[in-house]
3-oxoacyl-ACP reductase
Amino acid sequence: MKTLSEMTALITGGSRGIGAAIAQRFAAEGVNVVIHYLQSHEAAAETARFCMESGVKVLTAAADVRSKEQLARMRDKLEQHGMMPDIVVNNAGIAHYGLLSDVEESTWDDVMAVNLKGMFLCTQLFVPAMIRQRFGRIINISSVWGMSGASCEVLYSTAKGGVNAFTKALAKELAPSGVTVNAVAPGAVDTAMLDHLNHEERAALEQEIPAGRLARPDEIASLVYFLALPESGYITGQIISPNGGWIT
């Protein structure tokens, strides 16, 4: 089995927020990282610079996770650089807020394509190499709303519920091959996804959470890193929700 310093982690949507925190945590622990992004080139480059300070190999790669062709080109790029991932963190995702009656079909398609199809395509492309080496870690970033549902977030809740079901089923399929599949389903995290909240709304949200605050991105990254460790090989098919006691 490879040591951590010989491994590579691919983080989709790794240019900022939770994804950037995950990339930086892996780099700090000596793991080589691939930072995937769609359009945020400058943010990806900045995250890459932080990771490089840890002395690891870092690669940035742009691709639309909705496109199998673009992801296949990204895989070829990784292979050419000797950075095929031992760890895949499916973090890329988009949210939607609004009444179901107001949702356009195209919006439904887009939310499902990014959150579900992207995870499926990326996993499908990189799993064969993990099976061949009889080691791999697939960690899907879900949401507490995929477990409990949220009013006016039917699309997002449905997509993340699908992430959870995908995780449980694939874990059973890949367990004999030494590949674990888990999901991290955070509660409210202090990232740009909550920038639409004003001060009063944010304060009200924090009061709902028993811990009395939002999660920091690095706290989510710590859990992802733990699940990626070789010694975490008996943990698979789990949906783990760091949410400060908000949803139990």
The chain has one domain: 4-240. Strands lie at 8-11, 32-37, 58-62, 87-90, 136-141, 179-184, 239-240. The two ends are 36 Å apart (CA to CA).
